[in-house]
Amino acid sequence: MTEKLRVSIDRKGCISCGTCWNGCPEFFEQNQKDACSQVIDKYRIASNPGEGEAPVEIEKMVRRAADLCPVQIIQIR
Ligand code: SF4
Predict the structure, then answer these.
(1) Which of 12, 14, 31, 72 to mutate to test the pocket of ligand 1 (most atoms within 8 A of CB)?
(2) pLDDT tens digits for 29-52?
(3) What domains appear along the chain, each with residue ranges and CATH number?
(4) How confident is the model at residue 66 (pLDDT cuts 50, 70, 90)?
C-alpha cells in the first residue's frame, strides 16, 4: 500500500499570499470565488476543498509549502 500524506487547509485563515500554490501547484490552487487556497480536485477528500491526500511523489513540495505558509494553516498528518 502506498503511503499518503493527509493535508488540511484551514481555509478561513488563508490570507491568499500565493506561497502554497506558487510553490506547489501540483497540490494547491487558488479558489476563484473566495481567492483562498484549496486542494486541487483530484487530491480532495470527499470533495472538500480544504482536505486532501498527497501522494509520496510530491510530499517534499507539500511539506515545504506548509512550512512556508506565513499563517501556518496547512496541517499535515
Ligand atoms: S501559503 Fe497559507 S496563507 Fe498563503 S495562500 Fe497558501 S494557505 Fe493561504
Answers:
(1) 14
(2) 999 999 999 999 999 999 999 999
(3) 4-76 (3.30.70.20)
(4) very high
